Description:
This protein is mostly beta strands and 259 residues long. The protein is built from no helices and 35 strands.
Amino acid sequence: MASDGxxxxxxxxxxxxxxxxxxxxxxxxxxxxGGTVSNYTGLTLYDGTWYxxxxxxxxTQYTGLVKYNGNWYYVEKGILNWNYTGLTxxxxxxxxxxxxxLNWGYTGLTxxxxxxxxxxxxxxDQTYTGLVKYNGSWYYVEKGVLNWGYTGLTxxxxxxxxxxxxxLNWGYTGLTxxxETxxxxxxxxLNWNYTGLVKHNGSWYYVEKGILNWNYNGLVEYYGTLYRIQNGYLNWxxxxxxxxxxxxxxxxxxxxxxx
Length: 259
């Protein structure tokens, strides 16, 4: 270090004012500009590569975000990594980086170390639980993490959808249990308008306005045939007579017989 407190790059015992580049000194790599070692802290461009400097030395120990001209960039071991896309932690908050630059405009899913997370406005949102669309499919997120283990209903903008193993299943039609109540799902959405019979695991049940009605006892018409329902369940073992809508019906093995 010279008497003026600066460091210089010497060649043949003289300051080489023509030199701009890097030089090693006491285990560190310093940036030299016109023979003088830079005291700059931040990003600097040299020969097509951006370096993160700390008082002129490449900050090889640092991996994370660096602000430059109003934007945030991802630095890996002191060098801006334009190839990186994913999450990075900065002062207890996780941010989404796209091709080396923090992307404030991104909302969606991203994979980090094998787990999928929900990002909103460039930040990991650990408060969100619900559906998220990603590459044409809908996924179920719970507290910011995609939950592959979840199967059941979830509400999204006023409509209830059926999720199977973390993905919205548009192909499912049938019953599903949610908080001790059974609901009728049609093509992936809860159908509040449906009243009738539904087959589930080999048995038939009576659904009223989208909810399995365990209290119903009587007859239900299904595709032109009347069936005997007891406590919400089609009873194939029942044979006898039943009064329904002002008329007696003869039931044989759960099915009303025609006169």
